[in-house]
Every structure is written in C-alpha cells, then in structure tokens.
Amino acid sequence: LETFVGHQVLRIKTRNEEEVRQLQLLESLEHLELDFWISPSAPALPVDVRIPAASVQSVKAFLESQGIEYSVLIEDLQKLLDEEKEAMARSRR
Amino acid sequence: VKRSSRAFDFSSYHTLDEIYSWMDTLVEDHPGLVSKIRIGQSYEGRDLLVLKFSTGGSARPAIWVDTGIHSREWISQATGVWTANKIAEEYGRDPSVTALLDNMDVFLEIIANPDGFVFTHSSDRMWRKTRSPNTGSTCLGVDPNRNWDAGFGGDGSSGDPCSDIYHGPFPHSEREVKAIVDFIRGHGNVKSVISIHSYSQMLLFPYGYTSVPSPDYQEMNELAKKAVSDLAAVYGTKYTFGSIADTIYTAAGTTVDWAYDQGVKYSFTLELRDTGRHGFLLPSSQILPTATETWQALLDIMVHVLEHPY
Q1: Which of A30, B171, B182, B185 has the CB geometry, 3.0–4.6 Å to B149, for a possible disulfide?
Q2: How big is the A-B interface in CB pairs under 8 Å?
Q3: Cα dihedral angle (B224, B225, B226, B228), rounded to 10 degrees?
Q4: Which of B14, B248, B278 lies closest to A45 in CB terms?
Q5: A48–B276: do the CB atoms touch at under 8 Å?
C-alpha cells in the first residue's frame, strides 16, 4: 500500500507567461516525481501539484527563488486519506 | 430480506463491488425502465457495465454519460450513482425526465475505469490511469482521456508511459476506451456524449486538440452558459465554461473531441467540485450537494438535446 505521508499539494498562482514557462520546466523535472493535478497552461489559471515529501523543500525553494506565489492546499495528504478511509468505514458500519 | 436501491447510502464513497451490487438492485427496483448492459471487459478482466434507461423502442436517439474515467476522481463516480438513482426515481414524476425517456434512451457508465478505481481503493488513492502494462517500461497504465482518436498524440498528452497523461501506444489501445467506441459506433444514434470528471468546476466542449472553434461553438457556448447558471442557482457554485483548449489547455485525444468528430454534436465534459482545497479528496459530505447541483446542468443539456433533434 502506497502511503502519502508528508506529501503536500500546493496551489501555484502565475502572473505571466514567463512564470507559466518556469512551471512547465518544473513539470519536466522527472526526478522530483511531481503529480500535476492541474497543469500549467495560462497565467490566469491556478496550478495544483502534489509533491512527495522528499521534494517539498526543493520545489518551494524553486518557487520562492523565482518569486512565484503559492499556497499550501493540503498540508499532509495522508491525513486526508486517513479521514476519507475512516468516513467510508463509518458509513459501512 | 430483499435489498433495495433506496437503502444505499448515497452520501458515502463506495467500492466497486458495492456499486456494482447496487446497480443490480436498481435494475430490480425499476425493471421496466432500467437494465444493465456489459459492453466489455477491462484489462484486468472486470466487467464494463452500463445502465440503460429506456421506456422501449429500438435504437432510439440516445444520450451517453460516463463518470470516473480518471479513477481517482471519486466525486464523479459518486455523482454517477446518485444520478442513476435520480433518473430512475424522476421518471413519471418530473415532466422533463419523463419527456426525455419517453423519446430517448440514456446510457450511463458509472465506473468507466474499474481497474483504476479498484487500485485507488487498494493501493494508490491518487491513481488516474488504466492498469495495462506498457512494452519496454515498468510504468503501468494509459491516460484514458488522451487515448481517443482525435488529435491523438498531440499537445497536452505525453509519449512517456510513466506520465499521468500518457496517450498510449495507439488510439483506443485501452479496452476501457475501445468498449465505449464500439458501443457508440454500434449504436449509431447517440446524440450526446457527456463525460464527467473532477475537479475545477468547469463545463467544457470541443475542441481540446485545437483552439479552432468548432462549427457548433455558438450553440454549445449558449447551452453551457445556461447550464452553469442553473447549476450555480442551487448552492452558488461557480463554474467556468468554454472550449477545452480555450478554458484550460490544449489536450489531444479526449473523449468529447472524438465524439464530436464522430458526429455527436452535443459533446460535453464536466469538471465537478471543488476548486482545489480538497481536489480529488473531496469529503463525502459534499457528494449530495455536488450531485444535486450537477443534476441541473445535466438536465439542461439532456432537455436541449431532446428539443433540438438533428
């Protein structure tokens, strides 16, 4: 069973095409194992990305160095998954 | 004790077995209206099941609806279950549903990607793709919403089997996709295809593989505008709408582009709640509100299809 302990989901807001391009570059970095829930496409649209625990600091550092705005949507993905599982079990009972 | 579709908890997420079992009870509860069709098997050998809502006739004009082709989008499958029940219960009560089913059939595939759905319950809640192996790669699965023969392999899809938007080795390589293709082609009288996804609150229509407006852009846009307005009237949930390419990004090989290119004019795709706070992990407490508001948009589209034969 794969767990998602420490995985975070960030919402990234881009202001211009250059920032979109930076995120597309980030998307191409396979070693970070990012999972884009909403891919970078246009400046007006938010980008949501799941980041494995090991890559969280690198990604945040990258965004901050580029001055790209972001917020943490999901602090700990596993916590939400556990809650979801519990809700299903409760319902079944 | 006989099971009843009414005893089902629509406000909770369910496993594949629970949903398939509930489909049987729905058919039992509405024998003159609802039947179950097996349109194929998934890669791992699971049945691909479709609920048919019909009051008779043969090869009547039809509306196709699928939910959950991306397995991790659990709110979609849950909305599919609720919607199936709603259609069955409203026939004979709601004038729009009654008129619709007196003249057209509705086909609803609640679990369009069963292998992926089971995998989200057992191993990886974030799994999106099918579960078929890829030659020369250890990565499994194809994105079934990039696998259609409509701009196949173009922008917004990937040739990397490890990518979540991997388009697959060739169009309709995935059994889950091919089954729908064969069904719609074989039926020959499908007038609308509505493919339900989540999340990000959007109502989209062709094209995705090109930013060129489709010939029916104006009509689709007007219909989408009405649908999202009626949806918003329920709980104030705001949807954006437009062509896939204009509204989100260029995405080649999608369901609705294929359907549109096949001559199915009213091809739409919905992205249900929410806007990102929970994403694919939308709490089960939001299933009923999501399904309820989505129903308004679905009904708008279905009634429009009924009233605009072509």
Answers
A1: B171
A2: 62
A3: 80
A4: B248
A5: yes
pLDDT at B54: 98
DSSP secondary structure code for residue A3 in this structure: -
| CB B101, CB B56: distance < 8 Å | no
Q: What is the DSSP string of A29-55?
A: -GGG--EEEE----TTS-EEEEE-HHH
Reference B51, options B108, B114, B113; nearest CA is B108
- Report which of B144, B151, B150 is spatially closest to residue B165, judged by C-alpha positions: B144
Which chain A residues contact residue B75 at CB under 8 A? none
Distances (CA, A) of A37 to A3, B41, B126, B238: 18, 28, 10, 19
End-to-end CA distance of chain B: 47
Confidence check: pLDDT of B107 > 90: yes
Q: Catalytic site residue B44? A: no
Burial of B216 (0-12, 13-18, 19+ CB in 10 A): middle
Nearest Cα residue to B79 out of B299, B300, B283, B294: B294
Mean pLDDT of A44-49: 91
Determine contact, residues B129/B140, Cβ cutoff 8 Å. yes
ipTM score of complex: 0.91
Instruction: Give whole-number Cα distances, B219 to A60, B30, B166, B305, in Å.
Output: 44, 35, 32, 11
Radius of gyration in angstroms for the set of CA atoms belonging to chain A, rounded to a whole number: 15
**Beta-carbon count within 10 A of B97 CB:** 21
A-chain residues near B13 (CB < 8 A): 84, 87-88, 91
Q: What are phi and psi of B5, to 5 degrees?
A: -65, -20
Confidence of residue A50 (pLDDT cuts 50, 70, 90): very high
List B174, B176, B271, B293, catalytic entry: B271
Query: Closest by alpha carbon to B77, among B66, B63, B89?
Result: B66
Q: Are B104 and B60 in contact (CB under 8 A)?
A: yes
Question: Any CB–CB contact under 8 A between B308 and chain A?
Answer: no
In chain B, positions 259-288, which contact chain A (CB-CB < 8 Å)?
276-281, 283-284
Q: Which two tokens stand for residue B140?
A: 């499994």
C-beta separation of B126 from A4 below 8 A: yes
